[in-house]
Amino acid sequence: MTTVTDATTAASGEVTHAEASADLETVRLVNGLSCELPANSPLAKLLHSQRTWVGPDAKQRLAILRAAKSVAIVGASPNPARSSFFVGTYLQQSSDYRLYFVNPNATEILGQPAYPNLAALPEVPDIVVVFRRGSDIPSVVDDVVAVGAKTIWVQLGIWNQDAAYDGEAKGLTVVMDRCIKVEHARFHGGLHLLGFDTGQITSRKTLR
Questions:
Q1: What distance lies between CA 154 and its chain's CA centroid?
Q2: Buried b or exposed e, range 171-198, using 16+ CB within 10 angstroms
Q3: Which PANTHER family does UniProt cross-reference here (predicted)?
């Protein structure tokens, strides 16, 4: 943020209120309260790095997966080496979700058409799964809200808690830093609750 000062102030070295405010950053405390601190202070940096947002618990995530009928994957890739391709393959083969792939640079993924954005989908998805950088999540939140989807599911390893708070403030259910493939498999008996492979093989479709 740039603050314009007059020549007299600049020459005297005085700091205006606007200049001081420009260096402040709003940080969220563990108890959920917010306060303003100098952006370059050690405390501000520490608090900014700490995770204070808590998403839906296991029962709530199960309810999300049970209620959903359609899933869109933003950042889906046609590259078999990418995690989004692996997750898309799993959902395509092991769930009854209507599955949509969103990638403006692809025309087809896993035999299905790829869409340039969420607005181009033929329906509003129940869950929007996101494979994008953490810094991109705020814009994806805005896109999810704009199309009227209710749940944004940010994949494992991706974290932006400011976007999580913002999404909730805008009425979204937010799941973050969790793999939808792992969660779906866990609730279907393929994984122990701690995430280990149970070795159980079943064709039952109890929770889809």
A1: 3
A2: ebbbbbbbbbbbbbbbbbebbeeeeeee
A3: COA-BINDING DOMAIN-CONTAINING PROTEIN, CYTOPLASMIC PROTEIN-RELATED
Exposure string of 138-163, with b = 16+ CB inside 10 Å and e = fewer, is eebbebbbebebbbbbbbbebebbeb
Tens of pLDDT, residue by residue over 13-37, are 443 444 344 477 666 665 556 677 7
Confidence class for position 186, pLDDT limits 50, 70, 90: confident
d(CA 204, CA 208) in angstroms, rounded, equals 10
Per the CB < 8 A criterion, the answer to whether 83 and 155 are in contact is yes
Distance CA(60)–CA(73), nearest Å, equals 20
Residues 6 or more apart whose CB falls under 8 angstroms from that of 193 comprise 58, 186
Q: Is the pLDDT of residue 42 over 70?
A: yes
Neighbours of 97 (CB within 10 A): 20
Q: Which helix (H) or strand (E) is 29 found in, with range?
A: none
Round to whole Å and give the CA distance between 191 and 88. 18
Say which residue, 130 or 27, is predicted with more confidence.
Answer: 130
